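Entry 14. Structure prediction run on the chain below.
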Amino acid sequence: MLGLGADLLWADMNRLLAFLFHQGVLDEQFLQLQQLQDETSPNFVSEVVNIYFHESEKLLRNLRGLLMEREFSDYKKMGIHLNQLMGSSSSIGAKRVTNVCLAFRAATDHNNRSGLVS
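Output returned:
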């Protein structure tokens, strides 16, 4: 009985992953991450994604803080935070987040505050 439930759960997960790939949320880097998971580290993907979420939350909080500054002018610091978020997003296959970071990074390279907040 437990086997049937697990099979259904795996099928649901695979459908969700297929949807995320189709929508451009994930890319092939996520598949490579999955390939690193094996019997010796059965929770590898889950652990990496949890670390990513935790670190991304901190980076997003820092980015938001910079953008909320009335006299924002530290585009270099903004770029550093964006590079960190872009790198970690790319490494786990979070394609859509990586693409948003690229757009934000272009705005910081041109000191374009309106490109960051629009």
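The chain is about 80% helix and 0% strand.
Filed with the rest of this week's runs.
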